[in-house]
Amino acid sequence: MQKLLISVVALIALVAGVVIYNTLPKPQPQALVYDPPRALESFTLESSLGRDVTNDNLKGQWTLLFTGYTFCPDICPTTMADLRKALPQLTKHTELPVRVWMISVDPQRDTVKRVTDYASFFGEEFVGIRAEHPQLYPFVNGLGLMYSIPEEGETDYLVNHSAAIVLVNPNGERQAIFKAEHVMGEVPTVNMDTMATDFAIIASSFN
């Protein structure tokens, strides 16, 4: 009788624990998460893969899209290096591949070879992307990002561009955007620890 009573009490405690757990507020990502995810307009862009890429190349993997350019003096190399360090942490939370697309916003100087050399330096998970402005600008704008176009004839210039990172889900849709932190006197970059925590939450709830 005593064993039965202990078993009943244990069962009640277990059920109570499950109920309490399910009613507790779940952790929420700090990133801007699109609910529902947003489809991307059709695109065709040049890549470091040796062929053009389209929407289909985003499917079956998680992809981090980052705008930059190979002549960038600060934000781009810092973010790319940070992403290389963060990738092992991200891959712990998914069985699917995690890739990074570095989208050049400087088509005047960034050839396919140049973006290929640049992306490959950071690892095989990195893909360099480029296109001319008529194809590039709508694509970047559709991601919710921006970049500046230099005056005609300029050869020595900086390109202002977004420092945020867009997360595309395995269905090829915009799932979230990780915004850069702006600290006085420092290069604006995405906090990789926060991004990893957010990615774990997002990936775990992805159907």
From TrEMBL:
Domain Thioredoxin, residue spans: 34-207
Keyword tags: Copper, Disulfide bond, Metal-binding
Pfam assignment, any one: SCO1-SenC
GO molecular function per UniProt: metal ion binding
Positions annotated to bind Cu cation: C72, C76, H161
Disulfide bond annotation, renumbered to this chain: C72-C76
Signal peptide: none
InterPro entries: SCO1/SenC, Thioredoxin-like_sf, Thioredoxin_domain
SUPFAM superfamilies, sorted: Thioredoxin-like
Highest taxon in the source lineage: Bacteria
Record-linked PANTHER family: ELECTRON TRANSPORT PROTIN SCO1/SENC FAMILY MEMBER, LINALOOL DEHYDRATASE_ISOMERASE DOMAIN-CONTAINING PROTEIN
Family recorded in the similarity comment: Belongs to the SCO1/2 family.
Identification of the protein by name: SCO family protein
Native source species: Pseudidiomarina marina
